[in-house]
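Can you give me the bound-state structure? Components:
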Amino acid sequence: MRKADEEAVTGTKEKILDSAQYLIQTRGYSAISYAHIAEKLGIRKASIHYYFPSKADLGVAVVERYTAMFEAALAQVLENEDLTNRQKIEAYFQPYRDYADEPEMVCLCGALAGEFSALPEEMQARTRQFFLSHQNWLKSVLTVGEENREFRLPGPPGKFARMMFAMLQGALLVKRSTGDISQMDDVIEMLRGQIVS
Amino acid sequence: MRKADEEAVTGTKEKILDSAQYLIQTRGYSAISYAHIAEKLGIRKASIHYYFPSKADLGVAVVERYTAMFEAALAQVLENEDLTNRQKIEAYFQPYRDYADEPEMVCLCGALAGEFSALPEEMQARTRQFFLSHQNWLKSVLTVGEENREFRLPGPPGKFARMMFAMLQGALLVKRSTGDISQMDDVIEMLRGQIVS
DNA sequence: GTCTATACAAAGATAGAC
DNA sequence: GTCTATCTTTGTATAGAC
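Here's the bound-state model for the whole set.
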């Protein structure tokens, strides 16, 4: 029995996740409600509870899907032997550049970080895991690139990875608050300049 | 008639602001309520409404006080002719280093940035102003320091200022989510290394 | 699987006594 | 200036019909 037999092609469950994710990325988790999502989708609140009994269940599912998507994408980039390590770093920049063009969008986990202590524990754990996993990914690409003499860094790969990640996340938040899209380009340009060929 | 005649030495109004600020910095604006603050202070919700009729009034007052405090402190550092520009930058790092030791603290405006679109308009405006003003302060110190040949930067002062600011704000958020205090030290150390004497 | 109806608590806010 | 009492709306959640 296929999923398609139980749900429409674009399943309600996925529509709920999409809508919830968008709302969390723009407004945060604490500020959203079943009513907001229901209204956006033209369904009833009770239908959301059918798929996600509690708000925590919904929140966890959103973060879980988001982090899994990145996990898969980053693994694929890492394994791709056609890419130089510099190209892998450029690939990492891409989602940040995409968010830069959406005036009220930041990284899901960047938004959640601002209200961290108010989140259900499992959302905290997955957000934490997202941050650690991205920093580790960057560290490994930077380490190999430097070992290959592909580029040099102004510091240890681990610390440079932390710096990069904090900068990109911070820049998205500053970009949205100031409304100045060039923030992202400036920051990424500076970053590129520090990875010296 | 002095303020002291109307209010106790440690006025209720200030206690409310302190408590609200702490709660916003840890949990975010959307997640806090009059009930939380009232319970913490051992007073009734109605007493808070006496000083701050609406939640937006309270939120605006908190951000206003926070930004004014920084405005004054940064102006004083800027005018202090006994400090080198590098020392002024070090002074800028200090509050971030202080927050690093408080496991669940981030910058007030960093927390607000995560839920930006859910904030009352005046809170948005003041958060935006905070970001712009800090970036401009950094830019001016960096510009003068470079003109004086006190140090050199790996890029234009304006872009370096943006990078620094995004990095510091991002690092606080990552620090809290991962629980790893060394995040802040690593980032600040990298930053120092890039301001070359 | 989606709906209506409803329960229950929390949140934001006001009126008026003291 | 702080309290009690109260109101209204919203948010989360469940029961049960269709």
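A couple of observations. Chain B touches chain A through 51 residues (CB under 8 Å). Residues 58 and 160 of chain B are 34 Å apart (CA to CA).
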